[in-house]
Amino acid sequence: MNKRLHIFVSGRVQGVFYRASAKRVADQHGLTGFARNLPDGRVEIVAEDGEAGLRALLDWCYRGSLLANVDGLSFDWLSATGEFNNFQISRDDGSLIVDQVHALTNLGRRVLNRVDKEVEQTVVAPINGPKHVVIIPDGNRRWARERGLLSWQGHKEGIERTKELLKAASGMGVKHMTFWGFSTENWSRPDDEVGWLMKAFIQAVSELGKELIKNKTAFRHLGRKDRLDPRLLLDLTKLERDTAEFKDKTFSMALDYGGRDEITRAISKLNKQNKPTNEQTISEELDTAGLPDPDLIIRTSGEQRLSGMMPWQGTYAELYFTPLHFPDFTPDQFALAIADYGNRQRRFGA
């Protein structure tokens, strides 16, 4: 079922580039509607089509172009009316024209294309990018439901997206990637879904293992080891051993992981060894021992909480939330998150 998304954006957003880029995103996803400047300095965007494409546009609007500064955004989901044939932008005089014509009139097609390419290059290779990125890949089941699919089909798409993002990460300067695949609370899901996930993880570890060895990337399993499928645990252990020699890059998969559980297990180990309990000793007993703390934690599907992901290690991590379900979080969207991180100033309490 098609929907209408009504968006108001405030900040340094008026001008041809923000609306031109919004149109480019809308056209990529086959959306219809318009974008226009308002007298109060905001930009109004109305778009219609399927929810996946609308979520992609909404995510872009949150971040905007590198030539704009978004400091406020509101939106409403409405029923589609089908009144638009394409996506247009509005000039200040109120008439609707195609974006390319407006861009050509103001700055010329070549200038616009050159700026777009420069923006894309800046997004892919930020100067001060994160070295360790953690992704909470939420929304696989919701993505499937919205398309009339079964839950396992959403998880399958999510695993494929994980492979793509892992390949893209090294080109963005990311040395360490962590994905939260299965939490300590996920055991409460239906048995058939849990069973499918365990089999899918076994296959994913096998496929990812070849890429990790090829790219000299070490593998780490984060989480409990006493409740996982024995075959899966065997494969995880073997992959850790086969990639242990690689020191420069790591890929970590959090399976049966919970932040409180991790801290509890670390303190329990210290007590059994009669070691003192302090920040250093606890850090040395965490599943992430030897890994740098995360610089950036990303959560998809509109949820704005960490749900227990690295509460100890992520104290000073930058947070990035996107309304896109994880299967729609493409390498391009990942690049936007990296670019957003590069524009932040980290103070570490100073």
Average of per-residue pLDDT values: 86
By CATH, the topology of the largest domain is Undecaprenyl pyrophosphate synthetase
Q: Please, how many domains?
A: 2
Oligomeric state of shown chains: single chain
Name the CATH architecture of the largest domain. Answer: 3-Layer(aba) Sandwich
User: What is the tally of helical segments?
Assistant: 11
> In CATH's first tier, which class of the largest domain applies?
Alpha Beta
The CATH superfamily of the largest domain turns out to be Decaprenyl diphosphate synthase-like
Structural class: alpha/beta
* Strand runs, count: 12
Topology order in helix (H) and strand (E) letters: EHEEHEEEHHEHHEHEHEHHEEH
Shape: globular
Uncertain residue ranges: 93-125
Strand content: 15-25%
What keywords describe this structure?
single chain, 350 residues, Alpha-Beta Plaits, Undecaprenyl pyrophosphate synthetase, six-stranded mixed β-sheet, six-stranded parallel β-sheet
Characterization of the model:
- By secondary structure, the protein is of the alpha/beta class.
- The chain has 2 domains: 3-123, 2-Layer Sandwich (Alpha-Beta Plaits); 128-342, Undecaprenyl pyrophosphate synthetase (3-Layer(aba) Sandwich), CATH 3.40.1180.10.
- The protein is built from 11 helices and 12 strands.
- The chain has helices spanning 16-28, 51-63, 99-106, 109-124, 140-146, 151-169, 191-214, 230-242, 259-272, 279-285, 331-342; strands at residues 3-12, 32-37, 43-49, 69-79, 87-90, 96-97, 132-136, 176-183, 217-222, 249-257, 296-299, 318-321.
- A 6-stranded mixed β-sheet has the order 4-1-3-2-5-6. A 6-stranded parallel β-sheet has the order 9-10-8-7-11-12, with helices on both faces.
- The longest helix is centred in the middle third of the chain and has 24 residues, at 191-214.
- The radius of gyration is 22 Å and the shape is globular.
- The chain starts with a strand and ends in an 8-residue tail after the last helix.
- Mean pLDDT is 86; it is low at 93-125.
